[in-house]
Amino acid sequence: MQLLPRAAFVAACLFLLLFLTNSITSYSQNGNAAAATRTSVQSGNWHTASTWQNGVVPSGNDNVVIASGTTVSLSADANGTGTITVEDGAIFDMRDNEASAGTLIALDGSEVRQAGSRSYPAITASSIQLALNSTYIYQGVNSSITDDVPHPTYGNLVISGTGSNGSVYTSLTVNGNLTIYLSNSRELRLRPNATYNFGSLNITRGVFVLNGSSGTTTINVAGDVLTSGTGTLRGTNSSGSTVLNVGGSLTNNGVFQQDDGDSTGNFTVNFNGNSTQHIAGTNPIAFEQLTVSNAVGVALDRDVSVDKTLTFSAGSINTDESTLLLGCAGTIANAGEGRFVEGYLAKEFCATGAFSFPVGTTTGYSPFSANVTSLAANPSRLTVAAFEGAGPGVEAANSVSRFWNVIEDGDLTANLSFNYRDADVTSPANEANYSLVKREGNSAPSVVCTGAGCINAASNIATATGVSTFSLWSIGFPVAPSSAEAIVTGRVLTAEGRAIPNAFLTAIGSDGRIRYALANPFGYFSFRGLAAGETYTVSIRSKSFEFASPVRVITLNDAESHLDFVASAR
C-alpha cells in the first residue's frame, strides 16, 4: 500500500480539523444550527425581510433584537426558541397573534403590545423579563385578564379594553404604574382570593372596581392613586369588602365611589406610607372608612368626608386650609397623643348625644368634646380647631397657651369640654382660678365662668354647660379693659364685593400679644381693646380665598380705624 507523502498527510489533517471546527460552531449541542442575531433596521412586519438587517427574517433559534426607534408588528404567529429583546424606545406589537421564544426581555423604555381577544400574555416563553420602566399593553375587544397562562411581573401595565365589562381572574404584580383605560365607561372588576400589588394606580377612563364579588379583596399600592378624566375608582359592587392600602398620595380628578349604590360591602382606604401623604384633587372625596397608619401623617389639600369610621393607627391628619367632615354616623377610633386632627374637624349631628373631637396642634393633643342636649335643626354641625398661643381676652402670662375655634352650622345646644396640657399652663400656681372666656364674632370677650366648677386643674379640663352660641374659647385671667382703647373694624370681601364669612384674622402689637377676630356671615370683623398710638400687624387667612396683601401694618392714631381685605383668588 502506498502511503501519502508527509506534506499531503499534514494537509489532510488540517482539512479535517477545519471541518470539525466548522461543524462545532455551526450546530448547537442538540444538533440545531447555532443561533444568529436578527436586528430590526426599520419599522415593519416581522415576516418581511426588509425589516431586518441583511434581509433575513428570524426563524428557529435566532436571537431577535427589536432596535430602539423601530416598531415590529406580527401579521401571523412567530415561532422560535431564541431570545427576543425589545430595546429602549422600541415597540413589539403582537396585535392578535402570538410569539414564542426562549426568553422575552423588555428593557426600560420599551413597549410590548397585544390586541384582539387574548386576556393573558400572548408570548410563550420560559422566561419573561419586563424591566421596571417597560410597558405591557392589553388593547382589544376583551376587557378581562385571565389565568390561562402564568402572568409575569409587569413593569408598567396598561389595560385598554374596548369590549364589555371584564374581570381580573388572577393575581397581578405591577412594579410600576397600572393604568386603566376602558371604553364607554366599561367596568374592570377585581376578584377576591387573589394578590394585587401595584407600584401606582392611574384610572383615566372607565370604572375600576376593587371588589366585584363576595369575600375580601386587598390591594396594595406602594405609590400614588390617581383618577382623572372620565376614570372612576369604586370600592365594591357587591357584599364583598375591600381594603386599599396606599403608600403615596390619593388624588381625585375623576370620580371616587364607595360602591355602586346597592352594595352592602365595606370599602376601607388605609394610608400606610412613610412620608407625608396627601389627599387632593378637584373633585369630592367621601371615604366610607379611612385609616391612618403613617407615623409621619396625612395632609388634606381639599375638603374630605368620612361616612363611617376614621381610625388612627399611627400619625395625624393635617387639614391645613381644608376641613375633615364626619357624617351623622361617623365615629373616630384610637385617637390620642400623636394621633389626632391638626386643623378643622367637623361633625354632623342627627340626634342628641356626645362626641369627642380629637384635635390638636404641632405641640400636642388637646381634644374638645360636645354633648348635644338639644337639636333644633336636624342635621346641625360643629366645626372645631385648636390653635397655639393665648386666646382672645386672656393675659398671655396667666393663661393656657392654647385656644379653640368652634363654629356652628344649624341650631343646637351642648355642654362643652376643653382639654389642655400641663405644658400649656403659663402660671400653674394660678391655674385653679383661671376663667373660661369666649368671644362671639366681633363682640368683646366675655367671661363664661371662673374657678371651681369651671376649671379642673387636676384634669386640665375647662367646661361650659348649655351653650347655644359658638365662638373662640380661651382659658386664663381675663384681660382688663384699657383706659385708652382703640378699635379696628373692617370687612372681608371678594373682588366682586361679596362678603367672605369665617375668615380668620390676627393682630400683633409691639408687646407681642396676639389678638384674634373672625369675620361674621356678612364679612365684618373688629379688634377691640387695642391701644391708640400703637403699631399693629394684621394678618388674614381663609380656607377658600387668597389675598394679594394678606399682611397689613397699621398705626392707630385715632380711637377707631377701618381696614378692609379684598380677596384676589379663590
Which features would summarize this protein structure in a list?
11-stranded parallel barrel, elongated, Immunoglobulin-like, mainly beta, 570 residues, 5-stranded parallel beta sheet
Give your account of this protein's structure.
- This protein has 570 residues and is mainly beta.
- Among the domains are: 368-480, no CATH class; 485-569, Immunoglobulins (Immunoglobulin-like), CATH 2.60.40.
- The chain is built from 1 helix and 50 strands.
- The strands form 5 sheets. The protein has an 11-stranded parallel beta barrel.
- A hairpin with a 2-residue loop joins strand 30 and strand 31 (364-365).
- The longest helix is centred in the N-terminal third of the chain and has 21 residues, at 6-26.
- The protein is elongated, with a radius of gyration of 35 Å.
- The chain starts with 5 loop residues before the first helix and ends with a strand.
SSE order and pairing:
Elements: H1 6-26, E1 37-39, E2 44-45, E3 63-66, E4 71-73, E5 83-86, E6 91-93, E7 99-106, E8 111-114, E9 123-130, E10 135-140, E11 156-161, E12 166-168, E13 172-181, E14 187-190, E15 196-209, E16 216-221, E17 225-236, E18 241-246, E19 250-252, E20 255-259, E21 267-271, E22 277-280, E23 286-293, E24 298-300, E25 304-314, E26 317-326, E27 331-333, E28 341-349, E29 353-357, E30 359-361, E31 364-365, E32 368-375, E33 380-388, E34 394-399, E35 402-409, E36 412-419, E37 435-439, E38 446-450, E39 455-456, E40 461-467, E41 472-478, E42 485-493, E43 504-508, E44 514-518, E45 524-531, E46 535-541, E47 546-547, E48 551-555, E49 560-562, E50 565-569
Parallel strand pairs: 1-3, 2-4, 3-5, 4-6, 5-7, 6-8, 7-9, 8-10, 10-11, 11-13, 12-14, 13-15, 14-15, 15-16, 15-17, 16-18, 17-19, 17-20, 18-21, 19-22, 21-23, 22-24, 23-25, 24-26, 25-26, 25-27, 26-28, 28-30, 42-49, 42-50
Antiparallel strand pairs: 28-33, 29-32, 30-31, 32-36, 33-35, 34-41, 35-41, 36-40, 37-38, 37-41, 39-40, 42-45, 43-44, 43-46, 46-48, 47-50
